[in-house]
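Pasting as-is:
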Amino acid sequence: MAHKFDYDLGIIGGGAAGLTAASGAARLGARTLLAEKEEKLGGDCLHYGCVPSKTLIHTAKAMHTIKNSQQYGLPMVDPGPVDYSLVRQRILDVISTVQKHDSEERFCQLGAKVEFGTVSFVDEHSVLLDNQRVTAEKWLIATGSSPGIPDIPGLDKTSCITNKEIFYLDHLPQSMIILGGGPIAVEMAQAMNRLGTKVSMLQRSDQILSKEDRDLADELLDILRTEGVDIHLGSSVLEVKDHGQQKQVIIKDFSGNEKKLSAETILVALGRTPNTAGLDLENAGVEFGSRGIYVDERLRTSQKHIFAAGDITGDYQFTHAAGYEGGIVLANAVFRLPRKVDYTFLPWCTYTDPELAGVGMNEKRAALAGIDYNVWIEEFSGNDRSLAMGNTAGKIKMVLDKKEKVMGVQILGPDAGELINEWVAVLSGKVKLSTLASAVHPYPTLGEINKRVAGSYLAPKIFSEKIKKGLKFFFSLKGRACG
């Protein structure tokens, strides 16, 4: 006899993964519950991540352009100090506009029931939603992650902020120390510095953005330092002290030298922690660890009818990855098709200026995997649109395996996050490089650099001595006209 459940699919978490799954499941006719512990849907991305950060970054870029007006043949401009309350209001306005797409009303119209409250498992099919028992045939856990707070002496007694607070400050800090050198750290370091905050960034390793190729990371490092960001590589934090208006951070470099830094505000950007606390996953028999919930290629947990997607799995902590995974869960849970995740050509982007984006395998990953590879590079300094924009920093790197198949592409340059989209289509669609190189791109555009790097790879083959000799033999070509 079939069990009777309140819902076909219960979803815990109203972020990218949960919203994607809820929208699809409800529209397909599945009785769907979407439970969110916060007051509004949208998750970390909408309220504390992608949307507010990119809004802040764009505002900071506008300020940077104004301050450097002479670079464009314009008069020097003194914009004066930044009123952060106005910046904050703009951020709130953008969030409010996006929020309409992630509203309870919209999902109700689609057919999904939205409930706000805390959720904890009672057994493998039942949860307590604010002390009310609810059952579902299948569950999706998409509770995301939170900023990780490291065990540093004195940090627990010191007032500090994370990405959850930086966009809602009541004033622009005069100075800031950022702990970390990952994407959030470098994005905020550049943005706050451009707005007028004196920024110091502390990175434990000898490279910012440690997952990226060193040459690209180092070029971006030089740009940040040129703009005025004080960056300390190879620095471990020994202790943090709260002196009221000023916070002190004591660091030690690779040589053992200690240094004291002081700032008004400390931003902690040292990774993420999965939001598993309070879910009582043990009651449902769902296995998890310090990095998150364990899943298979179909995003099933140790209980095959319970899925997990998004940051909670601890793997690819991007909003677009979470949305993609929500679609995978939808295929398995509703269509009951054994669809597996494939991250081979999952793109990523760090939204500094210039941006650093990539898809597929970079040099660092290829070397670690022991793969023989070749790299083809084109500089933005040779791109006419970059010259016109006055933004010629960076380059594109195309990584080929020994069979000359593209394994990945990295771009450090203006609008790299947009430029990488062409490569997502090329690699995912298995488009030949000859097709890309022969495709007509509008001139002058930044996108020409994609065509050019493909052409650079093909040029030695097309213009080889063998080809020239063949043409001379068959068509009596006379060779060079200029000695």
